[in-house]
Amino acid sequence: MASVASPVIFKEFCPLYYLLNAIPTKIQKGFRSIVVYLTALDTNGDYIAVGSSIGMLYLYCRHLNQMKKYNFEGKCESITFVKLLSCFDDLVAVGTASGRVAVFQLVSSLPGRNKQLRRFDVAGIHKSSITALAWSPNGMKLFSGDDRGKIVYSALDLDHGVCNSSLVLEEPSSIVQLDYNQKVLLVSTLQRTILFYTEEKSVKQVGTQPRK
């Protein structure tokens, strides 16, 4: 008996003009006109987060059709990575070209959720460009990796507004991917992929040959 083929779903792909039109293509800084490049992207069911070359994070709410902007104080530098998380509160982590990492706890209109925008900073452990970010499902842990192979663990206490960070691992080559689940951190670098067991602080390499 022939199996019944599953139905084919057609999807249309088109530029998100409503999003792109809300982001300036140039900004004026003194007498200079600076071109704005889009440098990082992440999405979930609630938001589209876009990082830019001018240090501005553009956060589009898909339910309210509203664009909001967030930035780092001080130096205007390129955002290299953004990572959204929707748990009890909506969170977005942002990394920059100089190694700055910040977490924004977003405002929610839902009862019992966060009513005031808060920002947490990962204090000066990274000294080079952020290349990867990974959340724990509950938003209490954030892992950040940079292009010099450093991986930093940040413990967030959202109730008390505290962020404590420490260096947990250092690889000889750039971090290209991080993913965290069930006390295990998956780390991919330019040379290898490893599993880092956060409780035992032990490392297990995936495969035996280095990447070419």
UniProtKB/TrEMBL annotation:
It holds the Pfam family WD40. One of its GO terms (biological process) is protein exit from endoplasmic reticulum. It comes from Odontophorus gujanensis. It comes from the Eukaryota. GO terms for cellular component: cytoplasm. This is TCPR2 protein. InterPro entries: WD40/YVTN_repeat-like_dom_sf (IPR015943), WD40_repeat_dom_sf (IPR036322), WD40_rpt (IPR001680).
